[in-house]
Amino acid sequence: MAGKISGLFFIAGLTLIAYAILSGDANAGLFIIFPFIYGNSIFLMLGILFIFLSMFIFPFEFYRDNELYEDTNTFKDIGKRKIKGGGLIMIGPFPIIITNDKSMAKILIYIAVIMIAVFMAISIYYILISHP
Asked: What's the CA gap between 53 and 12, in Å, rounded?
């Protein structure tokens, strides 16, 4: 359950930003290795607002879910379970993958490759189509 609402807000925000860029109401660029977007579209503004809202909601979803298990005995055997986790940090086109599990690392590598490909496609579209 954790992360569902913030995940939906994040995906909705990315979708709105992509729509604003592809419809020509917003522009995207790359300064050295830092991507940026600008424009005067309501879709761009809502997309950025949804992404910030998802970042604000995210920590509270975990608190809400942990609050439900406070009275049960689920935390007694926490040492017996192996917790898998990981993270992906994108600095421009360079991925930094942090994980404690090989299968999680493979998933994060796939996500990083997809993100780089999408960003490159948008950049190539912007360079070749928008400015011939």
From this structure: 11
> Per-residue pLDDT for the chain (132 aa), expressed as one digit of tens each?
555 888 899 999 999 999 998 998 888 888 887 888 888 889 999 999 999 998 888 877 766 555 555 555 555 555 666 777 888 998 888 899 999 888 889 999 999 999 999 888 888 887 887 765
Q: Rounded to whole angstroms, what are the CA distances from 89 to 30, 93, 115, 129, 132? A: 17, 10, 11, 29, 33
Tokens of 98: 């942090």
- Rg of the chain over all Cα atoms, to the nearest angstrom: 19
Question: Measured between alpha carbons, how far is 27 from 40 in angstroms, rounded to an integer?
Answer: 9
Strand partners, 34: 31
**Measured between alpha carbons, how far is 83 from 72 in angstroms, rounded to an integer?**
19
